[in-house]
Amino acid sequence: MQSFMKWMLETIRAEGTSFNWVEENRFEWTASTMLAVSQIVSGKTIVLVTDRKRKWFQHYISTTINQLSNDRPMVPLISLDRIYPEFDEMTSGDAMDMLTDMLDLSFDSNYFFWYVGKGSDPRSEIAKRADNSCLWLLDEEFGHAMKLRSFDPYLDIKLIQLYRLFDLSLNAVLFGEIDTDE
Hints:
- This protein has 182 residues and is α/β, with parallel strands linked by helices.
- The chain contains eight helices and seven strands.
- The N and C termini lie close together (10 Å).
C-alpha cells in the first residue's frame, strides 16, 4: 500500500498536463482530500453545501457520486438545501447552532460539511465553524481549505477536475490501494 501523497502525485501526473495546476497546489489539495476521504471511509455522512453560483456543481456531485456504474459502496451524502430549505434565511449564530444541533441529533454527530463556493458567502459559515469540513473556497485562504479563484475563466473545468481526483481518491482508499493513516 502506498502513501496518499505519493499516490496523489502519480495520479495527478497520469491525468495529463491539464492537471498541472493541481500539482502546484497538491499539498493543500491532498490534505483536504485525505481528511474528507478518511471521514467517508469511517462512515460519516457528507453534508454538501455550495454557494448559489455553484448549485450546478452541487447537483453534479449529488448525481455522480453514487452512480451504479461506479461499482463501489454508496457514499452517504445529503444536500443541506434538501434537509433544511430555509438555510438562506438564517441570519444569526443561534439559528446556525440550532441547525448544527439538528444535524448532530440526526446523524449522531457522524457527519462533515463539504462546502464549495466563495469564502465570503454566508453559506460558507456553517462549514467554516467545523474543524473537520472539506472546503473548496473561492477567493479566501482558510485553514486546510483548497483555494480557488472565482475570476478564473477555467473555474468550472477545474471544479470538475478536482471532483475527478476526489472520486479517484475515494476509490483508491475504498479498494485498499492507498492508506490515509500515513
